[in-house]
Design goal:
The complex is a heterodimer.
Chain A: H1 2-11, H2 26-31, H3 36-59, H4 69-91, H5 93-99, H6 110-120, H7 125-155, E1 157-158, E2 166-167, H8 181-216
Antiparallel strand pairs in A: 1-2
Chain B: H1 2-13, H2 24-29, H3 34-66, H4 72-94, H5 96-109, H6 113-124, H7 129-159, H8 170-184
The chains are: A mainly alpha, B mainly alpha.
Chain lengths: 229, 191
Amino acid sequence: MANSKLKTFVNGFLRENPLLVLNIGLCSSLGVTTSIFNGLGMGVGMTFVLVMSEIVISIFRKLIPSAIRLPVFITVIAAFTTIVQLVLNAYVESLYNALGVFIPLIVVNCIIMGRVEAFASKNKVGDSILDGLGMGIGYTIVLVAISLIRELLGGGTLFAGTALKVDVIPEAFRIGIFNSAPGGFLVFGILAACLQAWKQYQKNKADQAEIAAMKETEKPSETTEGGDK
Amino acid sequence: METIKLFIKSALIDNVVFIQYLAICPFIGMTNDTEKATGMGLATTFVIMLATAVTWPLYKLVMVPLGLEFLQTLFFILVIASLVQLVEFFLKKMSPGLYNAMGVYLALITTNCAVLGITINCISKNYNYVQSLVYAFGSAMGFLISMVIMSGVRSRVKTANIPKAFAGTPILYVCASLLSLAFLGFKGLIK
C-alpha cells in the first residue's frame, strides 16, 4: 500500500514526466525559462494550482455531474490561477512582470486539466495530493533544468534576479541564442532526447537480463522489438 | 499603414508559436499530416477571431466599469469555453459537413493557450477594438503558417535517418528550434 503511494508520488519525476515524456503543458515551460528565478517561480505557482485543484475536485468528485464536469474543472482551476496571479502581483512584482501572460495561461495548461480529469476525478483526496505534488515537482525539475542551461549559456549568470546572483561566463563568451526563442526549443529537445536515451538504456538492460534469464532456463528466447513511436 | 505593420508584426515577427511559445501542444500534437494541421489552424483562427471580438467589449464595457478586472482570467476562459461549445452546436445543426471536418479540433481549442493568450495580450497591450481584431487575425495567421510549415517538415523527418535518442518527439523540437531561428530573421522587417 505504502509502496503504491510512493509510486504515485514519484511517477511524475521522470518516468511519466508531464513535459519530457507526455509532451503536455509545454508553452509555459519554454516561455518563462530564461532565468532560474522565473523557472522556479513558475514551477511553484503551477504546483500550487495543480495540488489545490486536485484537492477540491477530488473532494467534490462524486457531486459533480459528468456532463458539465469540464466547465466545473475550468472554473476551479481559474479560481486558483487568479489567486496565484494576485499573490504574485502583490508580493513578488518582478516575477509577476517577468512571467507576464504565462501566469493566466496556467488555466489552459494541459497538465492540470489532464491530471484533474485522469486522476483527481477518480481517486481519493490523499492520492490526489500525492499525484499533484509529484507531477508539480516533475514539472518544476524540468523547468529549473531548462532555465539553468539557458541562463548559464545565454545570460552568463546564475540566479539572476535574486540576492545570490553570480556571474559565471564573461560577456564576450555568452551565446545569446539560448536566451531567445530558438534556444528554448533546442534545450528542450536535447533534454527530451537525453531522457529517451536513458529509458532505452534501461530497457535494453532489462531486455538483456530477461534474455539471460531465459537462456538459463533453456527456453527459446524471443527478441522483443524496440517500442519506438 | 499602421494596420498592415501590426498585421505583419503579429504574424511573422512575433509569431505565436516560434517566438512567443504559445500553442505548442497542438503544434507538436496535430502536425503529423498537412490536412489535419490546416484544419486545426483554420478552426483555431475562427475561434481566436470570435473570442477576441467578444472578450474585448466584455472587458472594456462591462468589467472595467464594474471594477472586476481581477476576474479577467476566469471570465475569459469561460467565455472561450462557452463560445467553443456554441460554435460546436451551431456547426452540428447548420453544416454537418463542416462539423465533421472541424469538430474534432474544436474541443481541443478550449485549452489552446494561443486563444487565451491573444485575448489577454489585446487587453494588456492597450489595443483599441480594430487593432485588437487585426492583431488577433495576424497572430492566427502566424499560427496557421507555422502549423503548415511544421507539417511539411515532419513529412521529411519521417523518412530521415535520425539518431535513436532523438527519434519521436525530441527531433521535432530541434526542427522547431531551426524554424524559430529562421523566424528570428524577420526581426529587422519593421523598425
